[in-house]
Design a protein that fits this description.
single chain, 2 domains, flat
Protein backbone atom coordinates (compact mmCIF):
# COMPACT_ATOMS: atom_id res chain seq x y z
CA UNK A 1 0.00 0.00 0.00
CA UNK A 2 2.89 2.34 0.79
CA UNK A 3 4.48 1.57 -2.56
CA UNK A 4 1.20 2.21 -4.40
CA UNK A 5 0.83 5.62 -2.76
CA UNK A 6 4.48 6.54 -3.30
CA UNK A 7 4.24 5.58 -6.99
CA UNK A 8 1.21 7.80 -7.52
CA UNK A 9 3.12 10.67 -5.89
CA UNK A 10 6.07 9.92 -8.18
CA UNK A 11 3.82 10.13 -11.25
CA UNK A 12 2.56 13.52 -10.05
CA UNK A 13 6.11 14.76 -9.46
CA UNK A 14 7.17 13.46 -12.88
CA UNK A 15 4.28 15.40 -14.38
CA UNK A 16 5.57 18.52 -12.65
CA UNK A 17 8.91 18.12 -14.43
CA UNK A 18 7.22 18.17 -17.84
CA UNK A 19 4.66 20.83 -16.92
CA UNK A 20 7.36 23.23 -15.73
CA UNK A 21 9.71 22.45 -18.63
CA UNK A 22 12.39 21.24 -16.24
CA UNK A 23 13.35 18.04 -18.05
CA UNK A 24 16.86 19.26 -18.84
CA UNK A 25 17.34 21.53 -15.82
CA UNK A 26 19.92 18.95 -14.66
CA UNK A 27 22.00 18.02 -17.72
CA UNK A 28 23.87 15.03 -16.28
CA UNK A 29 22.90 11.63 -14.88
CA UNK A 30 23.07 9.75 -12.50
CA UNK A 31 24.62 12.67 -10.58
CA UNK A 32 23.17 16.17 -10.67
CA UNK A 33 25.80 18.72 -11.67
CA UNK A 34 28.32 16.18 -10.44
CA UNK A 35 26.74 16.08 -6.96
CA UNK A 36 24.37 13.94 -4.99
CA UNK A 37 22.55 17.09 -3.82
CA UNK A 38 22.74 20.17 -6.07
CA UNK A 39 21.30 23.58 -5.10
CA UNK A 40 17.53 23.15 -5.23
CA UNK A 41 16.71 26.27 -7.22
CA UNK A 42 14.63 26.88 -10.33
CA UNK A 43 14.02 23.86 -12.52
CA UNK A 44 16.61 21.87 -10.56
CA UNK A 45 14.09 21.71 -7.71
CA UNK A 46 11.62 19.81 -9.92
CA UNK A 47 14.07 17.60 -11.84
CA UNK A 48 16.29 16.61 -8.92
CA UNK A 49 13.23 16.35 -6.66
CA UNK A 50 11.81 13.88 -9.17
CA UNK A 51 15.03 11.87 -8.93
CA UNK A 52 14.85 11.86 -5.13
CA UNK A 53 11.26 10.60 -5.09
CA UNK A 54 12.14 8.00 -7.73
CA UNK A 55 15.04 6.80 -5.58
CA UNK A 56 12.68 6.44 -2.61
CA UNK A 57 10.23 4.41 -4.71
CA UNK A 58 13.08 2.24 -5.95
CA UNK A 59 14.27 1.61 -2.39
CA UNK A 60 10.76 0.66 -1.22
CA UNK A 61 10.44 -1.71 -4.20
CA UNK A 62 13.79 -3.32 -3.36
CA UNK A 63 12.75 -3.86 0.27
CA UNK A 64 9.40 -5.29 -0.82
CA UNK A 65 11.03 -7.65 -3.34
CA UNK A 66 13.46 -9.03 -0.75
CA UNK A 67 10.71 -9.26 1.88
CA UNK A 68 8.45 -11.11 -0.55
CA UNK A 69 11.23 -13.47 -1.66
CA UNK A 70 12.01 -14.39 1.94
CA UNK A 71 8.50 -14.66 3.37
CA UNK A 72 6.11 -15.48 0.53
CA UNK A 73 5.37 -19.11 -0.36
CA UNK A 74 3.56 -18.36 -3.61
CA UNK A 75 5.97 -18.46 -6.53
CA UNK A 76 3.75 -16.10 -8.52
CA UNK A 77 4.04 -13.43 -5.86
CA UNK A 78 7.82 -13.75 -5.77
CA UNK A 79 8.02 -13.40 -9.55
CA UNK A 80 5.67 -10.41 -9.42
CA UNK A 81 7.83 -8.69 -6.81
CA UNK A 82 11.04 -9.27 -8.77
CA UNK A 83 9.23 -8.10 -11.91
CA UNK A 84 8.28 -4.86 -10.17
CA UNK A 85 11.90 -4.37 -9.13
CA UNK A 86 13.09 -4.96 -12.69
CA UNK A 87 10.50 -2.48 -13.96
CA UNK A 88 11.55 0.27 -11.56
CA UNK A 89 15.23 -0.26 -12.48
CA UNK A 90 14.33 -0.06 -16.18
CA UNK A 91 12.32 3.08 -15.45
CA UNK A 92 15.31 4.70 -13.80
CA UNK A 93 17.52 3.84 -16.78
CA UNK A 94 14.93 5.26 -19.19
CA UNK A 95 14.85 8.44 -17.13
CA UNK A 96 18.63 8.70 -17.37
CA UNK A 97 18.57 8.08 -21.13
CA UNK A 98 15.93 10.76 -21.50
CA UNK A 99 18.39 13.27 -20.04
CA UNK A 100 21.49 11.93 -21.78
CA UNK A 101 19.86 12.00 -25.23
CA UNK A 102 18.07 15.34 -24.68
CA UNK A 103 14.45 14.22 -24.32
CA UNK A 104 14.00 11.97 -27.39
CA UNK A 105 10.37 11.21 -28.09
CA UNK A 106 10.49 7.37 -28.08
CA UNK A 107 12.35 7.20 -24.77
CA UNK A 108 10.20 9.89 -23.15
CA UNK A 109 6.96 8.14 -24.18
CA UNK A 110 8.32 4.76 -23.07
CA UNK A 111 9.28 6.34 -19.73
CA UNK A 112 5.73 7.64 -19.27
CA UNK A 113 4.07 4.35 -20.24
CA UNK A 114 6.37 2.20 -18.10
CA UNK A 115 5.47 4.41 -15.14
CA UNK A 116 1.81 3.47 -15.59
CA UNK A 117 2.71 -0.21 -16.02
CA UNK A 118 4.79 -0.17 -12.85
CA UNK A 119 1.89 1.50 -11.01
CA UNK A 120 -0.36 -1.40 -12.05
CA UNK A 121 2.26 -3.89 -10.85
CA UNK A 122 2.31 -2.26 -7.41
CA UNK A 123 -1.50 -2.48 -7.21
CA UNK A 124 -1.35 -6.17 -8.15
CA UNK A 125 1.25 -6.77 -5.43
CA UNK A 126 -0.81 -4.96 -2.81
CA UNK A 127 -4.04 -6.76 -3.66
CA UNK A 128 -2.51 -10.22 -4.05
CA UNK A 129 -1.02 -9.82 -0.58
CA UNK A 130 -4.24 -8.58 1.03
CA UNK A 131 -6.46 -10.50 3.42
CA UNK A 132 -9.31 -10.31 0.92
CA UNK A 133 -7.29 -12.09 -1.75
CA UNK A 134 -6.05 -14.77 0.64
CA UNK A 135 -9.42 -15.42 2.29
CA UNK A 136 -11.94 -14.92 -0.50
CA UNK A 137 -13.44 -17.49 -2.80
CA UNK A 138 -15.56 -16.73 -5.89
CA UNK A 139 -18.98 -15.69 -4.60
CA UNK A 140 -20.91 -16.33 -7.79
CA UNK A 141 -20.98 -16.22 -11.57
CA UNK A 142 -20.13 -13.08 -13.48
CA UNK A 143 -23.56 -12.93 -15.07
CA UNK A 144 -23.42 -9.12 -15.31
CA UNK A 145 -20.13 -9.11 -17.25
CA UNK A 146 -18.06 -7.08 -14.80
CA UNK A 147 -14.87 -8.98 -15.58
CA UNK A 148 -14.90 -8.23 -19.29
CA UNK A 149 -16.06 -4.62 -18.75
CA UNK A 150 -13.25 -3.97 -16.28
CA UNK A 151 -10.63 -5.52 -18.56
CA UNK A 152 -11.82 -3.47 -21.54
CA UNK A 153 -11.96 -0.25 -19.52
CA UNK A 154 -8.41 -0.82 -18.28
CA UNK A 155 -7.14 -1.33 -21.83
CA UNK A 156 -8.95 1.75 -23.14
CA UNK A 157 -7.62 3.94 -20.33
CA UNK A 158 -4.07 2.73 -20.94
CA UNK A 159 -4.33 3.59 -24.65
CA UNK A 160 -5.68 7.02 -23.69
CA UNK A 161 -2.72 7.57 -21.39
CA UNK A 162 -0.43 6.56 -24.25
CA UNK A 163 -2.06 9.23 -26.42
CA UNK A 164 -1.60 11.71 -23.59
CA UNK A 165 2.09 10.83 -23.36
CA UNK A 166 2.45 11.31 -27.11
CA UNK A 167 0.76 14.69 -26.83
CA UNK A 168 3.08 15.80 -24.03
CA UNK A 169 6.34 14.40 -25.41
CA UNK A 170 6.08 13.60 -29.11
CA UNK A 171 5.49 17.17 -30.18
CA UNK A 172 7.00 19.14 -27.36
CA UNK A 173 8.19 21.79 -29.79
CA UNK A 174 5.06 21.66 -31.94
CA UNK A 175 2.55 22.56 -29.25
CA UNK A 176 0.38 19.48 -29.54
CA UNK A 177 -1.19 20.14 -26.15
CA UNK A 178 -2.55 23.47 -27.43
CA UNK A 179 -2.86 22.56 -31.11
CA UNK A 180 -6.62 22.93 -30.62
CA UNK A 181 -6.80 26.14 -28.57
CA UNK A 182 -10.51 26.20 -27.68
CA UNK A 183 -12.78 24.01 -25.58
CA UNK A 184 -15.36 22.46 -25.73
CA UNK A 185 -15.47 23.45 -29.40
CA UNK A 186 -12.64 22.66 -31.79
CA UNK A 187 -11.53 25.55 -34.00
CA UNK A 188 -14.88 27.15 -33.25
CA UNK A 189 -16.89 24.10 -34.31
CA UNK A 190 -18.46 21.14 -32.55
CA UNK A 191 -16.94 18.87 -35.21
CA UNK A 192 -13.38 19.74 -36.26
CA UNK A 193 -12.73 20.56 -39.91
CA UNK A 194 -11.12 17.79 -41.94
CA UNK A 195 -8.09 19.94 -42.73
CA UNK A 196 -7.26 19.97 -39.02
CA UNK A 197 -6.17 16.34 -39.31
CA UNK A 198 -3.49 17.33 -41.82
CA UNK A 199 -1.53 18.77 -38.90
CA UNK A 200 0.13 16.07 -36.79
CA UNK A 201 -0.12 18.07 -33.52
CA UNK A 202 -3.82 18.77 -34.08
CA UNK A 203 -4.49 15.13 -35.05
CA UNK A 204 -2.86 13.85 -31.85
CA UNK A 205 -4.78 16.39 -29.77
CA UNK A 206 -8.11 15.54 -31.39
CA UNK A 207 -7.46 11.82 -30.97
CA UNK A 208 -6.87 12.43 -27.26
CA UNK A 209 -10.16 14.31 -26.97
CA UNK A 210 -12.02 11.52 -28.77
CA UNK A 211 -10.32 9.02 -26.50
CA UNK A 212 -11.70 10.84 -23.48
CA UNK A 213 -15.23 10.19 -24.70
CA UNK A 214 -14.45 6.51 -25.24
CA UNK A 215 -13.03 6.29 -21.72
CA UNK A 216 -16.16 7.96 -20.33
CA UNK A 217 -18.40 5.42 -22.05
CA UNK A 218 -16.29 2.42 -21.02
CA UNK A 219 -16.00 3.45 -17.36
CA UNK A 220 -19.73 4.27 -17.19
CA UNK A 221 -20.39 0.82 -18.65
CA UNK A 222 -18.16 -0.72 -15.99
CA UNK A 223 -20.02 1.11 -13.23
CA UNK A 224 -23.39 0.02 -14.60
CA UNK A 225 -22.33 -3.62 -14.70
CA UNK A 226 -20.79 -3.42 -11.23
CA UNK A 227 -24.10 -2.10 -9.88
CA UNK A 228 -25.91 -4.93 -11.61
CA UNK A 229 -23.57 -7.40 -9.90
CA UNK A 230 -24.64 -5.93 -6.56
CA UNK A 231 -21.28 -6.27 -4.78
CA UNK A 232 -20.22 -3.08 -3.00
CA UNK A 233 -16.59 -4.16 -3.28
CA UNK A 234 -16.90 -3.70 -7.04
CA UNK A 235 -19.34 -0.80 -7.07
CA UNK A 236 -17.25 1.56 -4.90
CA UNK A 237 -14.04 1.60 -6.98
CA UNK A 238 -16.03 1.65 -10.24
CA UNK A 239 -18.02 4.65 -9.00
CA UNK A 240 -14.84 6.44 -7.93
CA UNK A 241 -13.33 5.78 -11.36
CA UNK A 242 -16.42 7.25 -13.05
CA UNK A 243 -16.29 10.36 -10.87
CA UNK A 244 -12.58 10.80 -11.59
CA UNK A 245 -13.23 10.57 -15.33
CA UNK A 246 -15.52 13.60 -15.03
CA UNK A 247 -12.88 15.38 -12.97
CA UNK A 248 -10.28 14.41 -15.58
CA UNK A 249 -12.31 15.91 -18.40
CA UNK A 250 -12.57 19.13 -16.40
CA UNK A 251 -8.81 19.13 -15.83
CA UNK A 252 -8.22 18.59 -19.54
CA UNK A 253 -10.45 21.56 -20.31
CA UNK A 254 -8.60 23.64 -17.70
CA UNK A 255 -5.28 22.67 -19.28
CA UNK A 256 -6.40 24.16 -22.59
CA UNK A 257 -8.24 27.20 -21.21
CA UNK A 258 -5.41 28.19 -18.86
CA UNK A 259 -2.77 27.65 -21.59
CA UNK A 260 -1.17 24.73 -19.74
CA UNK A 261 -1.09 26.13 -16.21
CA UNK A 262 1.15 23.92 -14.09
CA UNK A 263 -1.35 22.71 -11.50
CA UNK A 264 -4.24 21.52 -13.74
CA UNK A 265 -1.81 20.08 -16.29
CA UNK A 266 0.04 18.06 -13.66
CA UNK A 267 -3.15 17.00 -11.86
CA UNK A 268 -4.41 15.79 -15.24
CA UNK A 269 -1.47 13.37 -15.44
CA UNK A 270 -1.90 12.03 -11.90
CA UNK A 271 -5.68 11.69 -12.21
CA UNK A 272 -5.25 9.67 -15.38
CA UNK A 273 -2.99 7.28 -13.48
CA UNK A 274 -5.55 7.02 -10.68
CA UNK A 275 -8.31 6.12 -13.16
CA UNK A 276 -6.10 3.43 -14.69
CA UNK A 277 -5.28 2.08 -11.24
CA UNK A 278 -8.94 1.89 -10.23
CA UNK A 279 -10.00 0.12 -13.44
CA UNK A 280 -7.11 -2.33 -13.02
CA UNK A 281 -8.07 -2.90 -9.39
CA UNK A 282 -11.67 -3.67 -10.38
CA UNK A 283 -10.30 -6.07 -13.00
CA UNK A 284 -8.24 -7.92 -10.39
CA UNK A 285 -11.03 -7.89 -7.82
CA UNK A 286 -13.72 -9.08 -10.21
CA UNK A 287 -11.53 -11.94 -11.41
CA UNK A 288 -10.89 -12.90 -7.80
CA UNK A 289 -14.46 -12.61 -6.50
CA UNK A 290 -16.47 -13.79 -9.51
CA UNK A 291 -16.32 -16.93 -11.60
CA UNK A 292 -16.73 -16.64 -15.38
CA UNK A 293 -20.37 -16.69 -16.35
CA UNK A 294 -21.84 -20.05 -17.29
CA UNK A 295 -22.15 -18.94 -20.93
CA UNK A 296 -18.52 -17.76 -21.13
CA UNK A 297 -17.31 -20.95 -19.50
CA UNK A 298 -19.31 -23.03 -21.99
CA UNK A 299 -17.87 -21.12 -24.96
CA UNK A 300 -14.29 -21.45 -23.66
CA UNK A 301 -14.81 -25.18 -23.15
CA UNK A 302 -15.76 -25.77 -26.79
CA UNK A 303 -12.70 -27.06 -28.68
CA UNK A 304 -11.53 -25.38 -31.85
CA UNK A 305 -13.20 -26.83 -34.89
CA UNK A 306 -16.31 -27.88 -32.98
CA UNK A 307 -19.44 -27.49 -35.14
CA UNK A 308 -21.06 -25.57 -32.26
CA UNK A 309 -18.77 -22.64 -33.07
CA UNK A 310 -20.12 -22.29 -36.59
Amino acid sequence: MLLVGATLVLIFVGGLVTSTGSGLAVPDWPLSYGRLMPPMVGGIFYEHGHRMVASAVGFITLVLAIWTARGERRAGMRWLAWGALAAVVAQGILGGLTVRFLLPTPISVAHACLAQTFFCLTIALAYAGSREWLASVPAGDDSSGVRSAATLATGVVFVQLLLGALMRHMMRNSGAELAVPDFPRMFGRWLPPLEAFQSAPAAVHLAHRAGALVVLVMVARLFRRARRAGDARLVRPALLAAVLVLVQIGLGAATVLTVKAVLPTTAHVATGAAILGLCWFVTLRSHRLLRPSARAAAVSAVPLGDPALS
